[in-house]
């Protein structure tokens, strides 16, 4: 099994509003990754190499598809997402956003696809609840009015949980194994789940 992130490594104990959290982030070094969980700011551990490679693979696959079919959007890593709820400020691993962002921009108000590569920090309970951060993020992403698809990607096995918005509501599926087909028509993405794991210990390059 590939190693996963170990824990949340720091916590700002004072409760913050969304605006206070953004001001707090402005004074932190760029390499730190903070998220607001139920009004509590938490800094996440640095991601593993496996996590980063899966994120890069997904970003490339999405951008290749978007370049061919919808150049008005692009896939970006770790944009700050402004949600209706001020108590939550997640930083998705991958998001499809509008391509016309501004120089110096850190945060977006619209995201059309949101993806998380699951880490140990995602299993931390949201303060004041018994719910894990990954479950809350999934619910927040699905409630984002612009979001059309949510991906929850495992990093220790080839598994993707996929939520797609349809006219009748959200439809969920679980895709497992390298040959399972990942298809998201809204972004013209279609291919095997195994493509997300290229150049990781689950699908190493051959000599």
UniProtKB/TrEMBL annotation:
Putative restriction endonuclease domain residues: 20-184
Domain of life: Bacteria
Leader sequence residues: none
Pfam families hit by this protein: Uma2
CDD domains: DUF820-like
InterPro entries: Nuclease_put_TT1808, Restrct_endonuc-II-like, Uma2
Annotated PANTHER family: GLR1098 PROTEIN, RESTRICTION ENDONUCLEASE DOMAIN-CONTAINING PROTEIN-RELATED
Protein name per its UniProtKB record: Putative restriction endonuclease domain-containing protein
Organism: Rhodopseudomonas palustris (strain BisB18)
Lineage: Bacteria, Pseudomonadati, Pseudomonadota, Alphaproteobacteria, Hyphomicrobiales
